[in-house]
Design goal:
single chain; about 90 residues; alpha+beta
Length: about 90
Amino acid sequence: MPLQVLGVQFTPAAADNNHGLTIERNKMDPKRNLTEADVNAIVDALEERISKKFYLDIGQGVWSMAWKTIIVLIIGIAAYGATKGLK
């Protein structure tokens, strides 16, 4: 009686090197082809994901730069106040 786990089929076999089991993986149909619509849908999805990640990275960079500028200004004002004082 064969056992199938996660797309891998284990079947009992005679004495061999696999401790009595042979492994057969599910084969894809060699005639399976993508249509032009499938390819366009895949490309559109990839373009959307790439552009979304790109703009998220740019947004994080802008916020990071703004945060660093605020910190530098606060430290600069504190240093100015510590040395000369705000008169």
